[in-house]
Amino acid sequence: MNQAEMTAELGRILSPERVLSGPAHDRAYDCDAYTVDRSRPQVVVLPESTAEAAAVVAWCHRHAVPFTPRGAGTGLSGGSLAALGGVVISTKRMTKILSVDVENRRLRAQAGAVNLRLSQAVAAHGLHFAPDPSSQSVSTLGGNIAENSGGPHTLKYGVTVQHVSGLTLVGFDGRVIELQEGPGLDLLSLVVGSEGTLGLVTEAEVRLTPNPEHVVTLLASFAQVRSATETVAAIIQAGVIPAALEMMDHGIMEAVRAAFGLRFPAEARALLLIECDGSPDRVGPEVETVARICRDHACLELAEAADSAERARLWTARKKGVGALGRIAPTLVTHDGVIPRSKLPDMLDAVDRIGAEFGLKVANIFHAGDGNLHPIFCFDDREPGVVDRVVAAGEKIMRLCIEWGGSVTGEHGIGVEKLDLISLMFDEDDLALQRRAQSIFHNDSGVNPCKIIPNQKGCVEHMKRWRGVAT
Ligand SMILES: Cc1cc2nc3c(=O)[nH]c(=O)nc-3n(C[C@H](O)[C@H](O)[C@H](O)COP(=O)(O)OP(=O)(O)OC[C@H]3O[C@@H](n4cnc5c(N)ncnc54)[C@H](O)[C@@H]3O)c2cc1C
Question: What's the whole-number mean pLDDT along residues 357-366?
Fold first, then answer.
């Protein structure tokens, strides 16, 4: 079916102004925040309810047209790119908060609701939605669920799966499935983190977390990157689990200073943003332990946020830090790997070495407490051959993560980016089991194709094509 026919048919299911096609929309929806892989959808649709989304999915199934769910498009592994074309189902018009149950600390919202809005909606009740990806001012509940997103406060509060108690899923053929926590096989947790490959989430019920009674936020600066990474391991080893333990290195610090006025000593090469929260009698001793460990590791300066405004400024600098890198280079690729915390010092040395080997500028801003690395390559994708070098350098870092007992992703998902690398972690039997788990929901190759599970029909061509285009 050609684009004009699809647009007309889907326009009859929704309304014509909520069916987008043409060159401008092709460009706007041809990638997510992993911008070096692109593929154009034929049509983008904007349903407003579960019923409308289900009608679109049923239409896709009847006509064997692939569909790809999309939230805000902030994903960093190409998850919402329409690898085989077809229909992108955007949740941009599904932003309603449907109910708030303060007594039982639950909130129900449509999948396109922006993460931060959930917390804003219940702030007056002293509650918040704990998963806080740095993209939280833009990214959606549906995207967070699909990626099982983490964030700075994951260290203490856990990732998205721990905070979802129910969801509504539109399955491969348009049937609506309600999943709720409870006895029996935990299909709810199977959907969380499945990157949109089991269907389209249209609504979810989430748990709300009480705001902490007392919070102390510290910014520690170090002259050596290694001293900062050793501090991270020592804090956890001492039995302290801060609410957040984030790191930035010299590759990003200047950009963050210029963008947000973050202050640190001139000789600093690494920063730790450390937050302790809870009751005052617990936080006090925790902060003392953290301060002692920082001093033992030759910390240059340990500054405490004086009030909530200063705390908010520190968190803005951290959470919008990647955006500040736009001052350094027009293209960024943010990698996502995990290693045991004890290996952080050696890993950051290795990341530096690998960057130099491939002639790439690399900056690090990451959830150090979780051992969740985010080396960011800063480059200009118009330079011939540079994307090849970025991909090769990224693969080298990911191989090291596996070799050192970690994983190729902590929170950004497999998407299309890591499709080649997943077989480094799982053998054919493991992958066959994952395919069988997927088949609980469908055996349809049209549900967000070419993501997570390698060697799907038609996807090899996509991989070849983009690598060809990208170079
Ligand atoms: C600056 C920046 C900082 C970031 N920081 C973090 C961080 O701290 N922690 C973290 O975990 N991630 C982070 N991310 C990655 C990204 O923001 C998260 O993965 C986020 O959850 C994606 O949400 P989204 O709405 O943008 O989803 P999209 O990018 O639109 O989609 C992501 C995936 O979810 C699927 N999907 C989207 N909506 C639905 C739905 N309704 N139903 C089914 N599947 C769906 C898509 O198909 C795709 O596979 C960051 C990204 C950026 C650009």
Answer: 96
Amino acid identity of residue 3, one-letter, is Q
Number of domains in the chain: 3
18 and 48 assigned to the same domain: yes
Tell me which of 371, 403, 435 is where a domain ends.
403
Which residues does a 6 A CB cutoff place in the pocket of ligand 1?
A: 32-33, 68-76, 79-80, 91, 111, 133-135, 139-140, 142-144, 146-147, 149-151, 195-196, 200-201, 322, 411-412, 448, 451
Report strand pairing: 372-373 vs 337-338: antiparallel
pLDDT averaged over the chain?
A: 94
The answer to pTM > 0.90 is yes
pLDDT tens digits, one per residue of 249-301 = 999 999 999 999 999 999 999 999 999 999 999 999 999 999 999 999 999 99
Domain that holds residue 348: 329-403
Side by side, the strands of the sheet bearing 214-222 are 299-304, 214-222, 270-278, 244-249, 361-366, 375-379, 331-334
Asked whether residue 8 is assigned to any structural domain, the reply reads: yes
